[in-house]
Amino acid sequence: MFMAGMVGLGALLASGAAQAQEVTLRLHQFLPPQANVPQFVIDPWIERVEEAAGGKLKIEHFPAMQLGGKPPELIDQVIDGAVDIAWTVNGFTPGRFPRPEVFELPFMMTNAEAASRAYWELFEKEMKDTDYANLHMLGAWVHGPGVLHVNKPVETMDDMANVKFRTPSRMIGFLLEELNAAPIGMPITSIPEALSKGVIDGAVVPWEVTTALKIPEMVKNHTEFAEGNAFYTVTFTLSMNKAKYESLPDDIKKAIDDNSGMEFSAMGGKIQASYDAPAREKAVEMGNNIITISPEETKKWREAAQPVYERWAADMEAKGIDGKALIEEAQALIAKYTEQQGNGSAEPSTDEAGMDKPAEGETAPAQ
Predict the structure, then answer these.
(1) Which residues form a coiled coil (predicted)?
(2) Which superfamily is assigned to 146-231+282-317 in CATH?
(3) pTM over 0.90
(4) Which of 57, 118, 223, 330 could lock onto 102 through a cystine, CB 3.0 to 4.6 A?
């Protein structure tokens, strides 16, 4: 009788748990679980959403393409409903999301947090019913300033001639061509092998990723630009299958909505960029040569980048998009949010937003 009662109680408890957890969603992305974004952006977001849903929602996180396919297929996986949520890079499918490319233009970004806020605002105004019409967007952000990591010192634009660089996006590819360098596209995880075999002479990536890829061990020269002058950045999205979102109960939708959008996007950019400094310090400790282009010299690089703006605007015009207007809007929004940061009125701190940030000297594998 006692055992029968215990079995009955167990079944009742299991039934109650099943009833409490009404929805399970699958989140798919391309990086390993210990990488910065999965560990410090995505997992905390999942925890907050699940908590807000009061136990009715479970989000299963599948890192490193565990559900199959290749990174460029992530966006179609979420649109088609093969997965419910995906974190991906717009540049994995070049040209498919034209409007967000405005934030990837050279020297467009000031810092990741301000640019991520600008990205979300412009998404709501210009991209929600165009580029991302088939998705329910949860977050949109950028990484920290891109840096040149190369096997020879790059102190002037002339030093770029004929240097083979791994390029992450169409925009930086356009810029490298203007600087007489040779852009070579490849997955970020292929950089170490490509460097070791001489396929490339260097890579353009943010500091954040260099530790995980052991780039400072392979090249000893790093060229960055004066603060507020980002050579480039890359745009990311966390999105959900639209039909799946619309099918959810209102309380679960609210749990997702309350933890997504502008503030989440700003924190995503801020946290990802926060890993730049400890990674840079590692290169300093190794005695590598870090070159910072002065504000005066940066003006020359900015001037050299102008044809990239013209080329992109013309490309947008051919698609029926007013590229020049988008550039002006993006610049104005970035300036607005950068100024708000300077006035101390941009947004809550990382801790206030309930998201983790690196401890002093801490690093983690990166994208």
Answers:
(1) none
(2) Bacterial extracellular solute-binding protein, family 7 (3.40.190.170)
(3) no
(4) 330
